[in-house]
Amino acid sequence: MRTELAFVLLLFFLIMIKSCTAPEPKNINWDAAGGNAGQTKYSALAQINKGNIHQLKIAWIYHSGNAAGNIQCNPLVIDGVMYVTTPEQHLVAVDAVNGKEKWRFRPERKGEKFSNVNRGLAYYGSGGQQIVFYGSGNYLNAVDIRTGKPVTRFGDSGRINLSEGYSRPAEQMGMQALAAPVVYKNIVIVGGTSWSAGAVVSGFDIMTGGKKWSFNTIPHPGEYGYDTWGDTSFYRTGAGVNVWGGLCVDTGRGMVFFSTGQPKGDFYRPYNAGDQLYGNCIVALDAATGKRKWHYQIIHRDLWDLDLPCAPVLVDLKQNGKNIPGVMQLSKTGNAFLFNRETGAPLSRIEERSVFPSTLEGEKAAPTQPYVSWPEPYSRQVVTAQDIFGLDTAHYKKARELYEQSDAGWFIPPSTKGLLYYGIHGGSEWGGGAYDALSNTLFVNANEIAWHIKMKDLQEGDEAKQHPGRSVFLKMNCSNCHGLDLKGRDNAPALTSLEKKYTDAPLKSLIRNGRKGMPAFLQLTDTELEALAGYLLHAQSPAVRTTSTALRYQSLGYNKFVDDQGYPCTTPPWGTLNALDLTSGKIKWKVPLGEYPELTARGIPVTGTENFGGCIVTGGGLVFIAAARDATFRAFDKDSGKVLWEAKLPFGGYAVPATYMVNGKQYVVIPATGGGKLGTPTGDTYVAFSLSDI
Question: What's the total number of domains in the chain?
Fold first, then answer.
């Protein structure tokens, strides 16, 4: 009898425990760029884990209908629906279980056409409102995700012009929102990008679109940092210091953090001494007012195109046994800069060291630069003689000759001698890193591709006699991408035969408004535009002597240090995935990311490839990433770096993936559209994976 009673009591006790235990959530969203307000790219979901990852299969493939490629947008998934953009900046809602399109929002109005890059969306859900914010062209759109229609009370019937209300006329600003906006309470915060004016970070009322505050990344008179510019008119005449890397928010402390790029032009800004705030800075603002709380400049007066490439990440750190709320900024130099989130005090060990002066007329390089000694870097720092590589003797000899003829290292100003250095495409790029608070570990992909930057004296030789439009071409730094010889560089097209494709008016429209990766040049006067179009369409017309080229020196363009087959001239690995322990500051593991099958077939160990996009880390002990040029999606063991699973994608996946749960089933999704800086084939696919037996 006692035994039966004990059994009944035990059974009752177990039933009570089960009934009191909260059921596992059926739906888990990925409702912010980077997965959350802190941009950690971490999800606690663990249904897909190390033990069953081999069962991961394609759940669905969505086709957007536009195969132009280069989708860099981290998808949002909210209540079983995925939201992502297309190359023409349409916002599409896709059933996250079966991949069927539910609705499509087209932002273009009469006569408009959008392209360029979108890196993410922002979601606001409160008080019965469900709104997604994102940029297209010069506009910030507000879309009701329940209907796919614009929120008509927001700005001008659902959008605001990001170029309006600033120091220059709207038609001269060219302000865009490439990075994902962020939301703080009733404010949507947008980081601006412009190649025509100084960038602006602005906060807008979520309901009306009214501007609540703005912060100039090139300070105006009376603003902090204005006196760091030797040319005090640069805020009116210059451009850049863009916020294309992204933002994150500490909602509890009411702070927004963002990273900036360099001022324009990239390699030579003469007669403009000073550190040039807020170029290459991590900046912390009061999210409610836009007031500066602190900043840290990671590169003073950048002359190397080493923009801060990605959003800051909120991390939890310890120092002297105390818990410290931290924020981390990754860099193209392959360093993790750690700061006290509240005060801006560096937690990384950083030393200001003397560096080299410039040899170019009028250029005043910064006398010192910050060097990080802890944590250790996650990508190579300096090109050395031991780094030189060739697939055969001839390629090695040619690479070694260029190395011997050039300077090599960090913070040597560009010169007519030439400079070899890592970093223009990272270290880190826009995907940033993923942070696992449980192990206090950063997971980050990196590039280890060197570049050769060489300047030319425009007062020498034929450059002194030129078509008037040639002067405009040089002044706008067009040669950095298209080359002084107009033959194109990297993925920038040649301009040598434009007269076969364009007449005068369409070419002027393209220059003025931009397209895809080419920025708009709204700052050109009508006379300058006329001259530039004439030069590009009639390059063989008689040369005309002009009084000035505006700048004495110009780079020969962005030239990767690669052989004639496109393989890097430095030793592999050329792309890596890394685990950095933020407690010890040491690299836990480093593995190649990506493969050239033709080199592997020749017996060369896996080299890794140049990569764009980023990773996420999950509670299942997995790091998911595509990014490499071999169009492969991989899952790595977060503890060892071992590849546990991989799947071939239809096209390259150059965005950060997302993971979510619907009806108790976990999925992982990645835009796979190729193109972009790697120039791989393009498509229109977005691919989701799930376990085959659930």
Answer: 3
